[in-house]
């Protein structure tokens, strides 16, 4: 059975019920609208509006979901001993996100967050974190086009309190 | 165009919390106020302090270095350099969140002065220490009441005295406060350690999981007898004990276990094994039907 999803720019995507269920948000909306897998009429007569997602972003989200639809539901190993929430990005996912420029990644992350697709959300979050890894603060600011609003005195204070990281 | 500015704060926080290394977290915190707010509580603080005594008269250099979460303080004991007073000033400021303290003496043949020991132990007395470790430290010039400061740490889980000179009686008194939490104890290459150490541990340390007495010549099979008899008081199923280069002898232990003076001795089953610890080491596995076991490397 198929489900119709409508994006903010009025594009209709017809996806498999299983794909639609991968989004917690869509899943909840379908429940609220009494749409069920066994009731074709309910699926045909309704479409799910997604006002926070554009056509271009939705296409990418669906591509990711298609690849991951058969994944075992896995427990994210959140909070290891030191309370880290590191996530391992699979090779396919790395390749998938490789060519997105930063603005697109942010849009995709926003969509994954709104749609509540945890795997995709963590992939993007970890990918951006990996971009930060090994860079100095001015390089990070340049990469993300951030204007630094900290004073030199404040920076010195932060450095003093965390002196253990720098040589 | 949505970019970093368009991401809600909780998403920025989610990204920054995935940074693992201290250096990355610091760089991110220095980028802008928003990043700082997101990662502020995750910035690494020193959780361990390592004090090294190094450098002979005339060639000593004091330094403070950082290794990951460890602050390494290198100092000398020369009267003229005032390193002792530096320790007593710096340590109380640094040690608030420190869980591990280690002292390494790289000067072979020199004794730790009482004032340096006092500065070190008193300076860390407010720290929530769970691990205390000394290497090559000769405590023979340190006064008993200075060593008693160790007893102010009352939740130590790991204590290591590697090649140190410290009388057993003083060690036991210093450890008394932490016996209920002690999980791992090493006392190596010490002529002071005797079987009294294990008999105290057998009675008073319910969390014990590891002991190393390598190179302590005055330790014998009697240590194992005490630990076997105290086995039911310990919470962990397995206790590992390293007895290489001691007077421990497995034949003597088995004689004790069969003797009528040790009624519970016959309840234990003995298995001889060889364990790979870099090289094949003979080992003795003692198991009790009650579920407890002791693994001895000799």
From TrEMBL, chain A:
Family: Belongs to the SKP1 family.
Keywords: Ubl conjugation pathway
Keyword GTP-binding: no
Name the UniProt record assigns to this protein: Skp1-related protein
Residue ranges annotated for the SKP1 component POZ domain, each copy included: 2-70
GO biological process, one term: ubiquitin-dependent protein catabolic process
Stored Gene3D superfamilies: Potassium Channel Kv1.1, Chain A
SKP1 component dimerisation domain mapped to chain residues: 118-165
Organism annotation: Pristionchus mayeri
SMART domains: Skp1
Domain of life: Eukaryota
InterPro entries: SKP1, SKP1-like, SKP1-like_dim_sf, SKP1/BTB/POZ_sf, Skp1_comp_dimer, Skp1_comp_POZ
Signal peptide (UniProt feature, chain positions): none
From TrEMBL, chain B:
Pfam families: F-box
InterPro entries: F-box-like_dom_sf (IPR036047), F-box_dom (IPR001810), LRR_dom_sf (IPR032675)
Residue ranges annotated for the F-box domain, each copy included: 7-48
Transmembrane region(s): none
Entry protein name: F-box domain-containing protein
Native organism: Pristionchus mayeri
């Amino acid at each position: 059975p198929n489900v119709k999803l409508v994006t903010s720019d009025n594009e209709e995507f017809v996806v498999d019920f299983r794909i639609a269920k991968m989004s917690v948000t869509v899943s909840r909306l379908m429940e609220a609208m009494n749409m069920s897998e066994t009731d074709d009429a309910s699926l045909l007569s309704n479409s799910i509006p997604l006002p926070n997602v554009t056509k271009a972003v939705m296409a990418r989200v669906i591509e990711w979901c298609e690849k991951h639809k058969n994944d075992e539901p896995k427990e994210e190993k959140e909070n290891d001993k030191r309370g880290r929430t590191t996530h391992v990005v699979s090779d396919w996912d790395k390749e998938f996100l490789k060519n997105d420029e930063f603005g697109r990644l942010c849009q995709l992350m926003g969509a994954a967050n709104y749609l509540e697709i945890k795997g995709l959300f963590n992939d993007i979050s970890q990918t951006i974190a990996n971009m930060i890894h090994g860079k100095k603060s001015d390089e990070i600011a340049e990469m993300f086009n951030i204007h630094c609003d900290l004073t030199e005195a404040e920076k010195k204070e932060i450095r003093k309190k965390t002196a253990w990281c720098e040589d | 165009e949505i970019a970093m500015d368009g991401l809600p704060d909780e998403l920025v926080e989610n990204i920054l919390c995935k940074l693992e290394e201290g250096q990355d977290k610091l760089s991110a915190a220095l980028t802008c106020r928003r990043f700082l707010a997101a990662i502020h509580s995750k910035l690494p603080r020193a959780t361990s302090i390592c004090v090294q005594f190094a450098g002979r008269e005339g060639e000593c250099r004091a330094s403070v270095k950082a290794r990951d979460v460890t602050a390494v303080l290198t100092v000398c004991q020369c009267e003229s350099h005032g390193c002792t007073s530096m320790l007593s000033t710096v340590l109380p400021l640094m040690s608030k969140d420190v869980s591990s303290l280690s002292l390494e003496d790289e000067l072979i043949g020199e004794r730790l002065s009482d004032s340096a020991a006092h500065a070190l132990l008193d300076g860390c007395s407010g720290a929530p220490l769970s691990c205390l470790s000394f290497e090559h430290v000769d405590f023979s010039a340190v006064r008993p009441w200075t060593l008693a400061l160790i007893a102010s740490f009352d939740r130590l889980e790991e204590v290591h005295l590697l090649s140190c000179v410290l009388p057993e009686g003083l060690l036991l008194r210093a450890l008394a406060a932490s016996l209920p939490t002690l999980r791992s104890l090493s006392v190596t290459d010490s002529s002071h350690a005797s079987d009294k150490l294990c008999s105290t541990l057998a009675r008073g340390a319910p969390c014990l999981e590891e002991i190393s007495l390598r190179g302590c010549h005055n330790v014998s099979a009697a240590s194992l007898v005490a630990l076997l008899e105290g086995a039911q008081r310990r919470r962990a199923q397995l206790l590992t004990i390293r007895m290489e280069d001691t007077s421990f002898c497995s034949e003597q232990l088995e004689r004790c276990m069969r003797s009528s003076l040790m009624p519970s001795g016959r309840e234990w089953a003995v298995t001889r094994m060889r364990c790979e610890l870099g090289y094949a080491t003979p080992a003795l596995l003692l198991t009790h039907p009650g579920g407890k076991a002791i693994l001895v490397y000799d």
